[in-house]
């Protein structure tokens, strides 16, 4: 009887944790050359051990008739990495094309970012903010700010537009 009660308790705890985890899907509209950067929490502290998985066919997230399982069955995993103790990560060797980057770690909501890789695009480092599962913070994926000669942070600008303008949250229900 005790084993059954313990098993049911574990089942409900796991179910509750999964239910609290949301997925935000963002689309980075500017092509990127390399995918590297730093992952932080809403307070700006680095997050160690974030799994980053790269999938093909990111357009499947636009098809609301498919479940998450059906989307994953139709995608191919092409690369993986994990953030280091400073929250840094790098994905190398991706061919030209569109990909979904999935950032996930226990205690944080999953973030999926759709990017286009193109070797002729400029190289940039990205700052990734993961939101906390219990509702803390907004997730984001954007070029990191650059430090000026005197240590002041200068927002990176491309073609006269704000770098955050290259990020779009996709419509549809949060998963």
Can you walk me through this structure?
By secondary structure, the protein is of the alpha+beta class. The protein has a single domain (21-169), classed as Immunoglobulin-like (Sandwich), CATH 2.60.40.180. Helix content is 15%, strand content 36%. It contains two helices and 14 strands, in the order H-E-E-E-H-E-E-E-E-E-E-E-E-E-E-E. The protein has helices at 2-20, 68-74; strands spanning 23-28, 35-40, 51-55, 77-82, 88-91, 97-104, 110-117, 125-129, 140-143, 146-147, 153-154, 157-158, 161-162, 167-169. A six-stranded mixed β-sheet has the order 4-3-6-7-1-14, with no helix packed on it. The radius of gyration is 18 Å and the shape is globular. The two termini are 36 Å apart. 25% of the residues are buried. Mean pLDDT is 78; it is low at 2-20, 148-168 and 170-175.
Biggest sheet strand line-up: 4-3-6-7-1-14
Could you say what the CATH topology is called?
Answer: Immunoglobulin-like
Overall tally of structural domains: 1
Termini separation: 36 Å
- What is the overall silhouette? globular
CATH superfamily: Transthyretin/hydroxyisourate hydrolase domain
DSSP helix fraction: 10-25%
Oligomer: single chain
CATH class, named: Mainly Beta
- Rg (CA only): 18 Å
Query: Could you tell me the mean pLDDT?
Result: 78
Major sheet size, sense and barrel closure = 6 strands, mixed
Strand content: 35-45%
CATH architecture: Sandwich
- Point out poorly predicted stretches: 2-20, 148-168, 170-175
In total, the number of strands is 14
H/E series = HEEEHEEEEEEEEEEE
Which structural class is indicated by helix and strand composition? alpha+beta
């Amino acid at each position: 009887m005790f084993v059954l009660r313990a098993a049911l308790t574990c089942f409900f705890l796991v179910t509750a944790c999964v239910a609290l985890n949301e997925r935000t899907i963002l689309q980075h509209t500017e092509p990127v050359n390399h995918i590297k950067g730093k992952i932080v929490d809403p307070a700006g502290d680095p997050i160690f051990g974030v799994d980053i998985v790269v999938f093909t066919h990111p357009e499947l997230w636009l098809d609301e008739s498919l479940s998450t399982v059906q989307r994953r069955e139709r995608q191919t995993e092409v690369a993986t990495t994990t953030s280091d103790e400073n929250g840094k990560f790098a994905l190398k060797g991706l061919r030209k094309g569109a990909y979904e980057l999935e950032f996930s770690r226990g205690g944080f909501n999953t973030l999926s970012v759709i990017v286009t890789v193109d070797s002729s695009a400029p190289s940039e480092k990205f700052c990734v903010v993961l939101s906390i599962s219990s509702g803390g913070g907004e997730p984001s994926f954007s070029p990191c700010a650059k430090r000026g000669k005197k240590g002041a942070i200068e927002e990176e600008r491309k073609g006269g537009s704000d770098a955050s303008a290259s990020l779009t949250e996709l419509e549809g229900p949060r998963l």
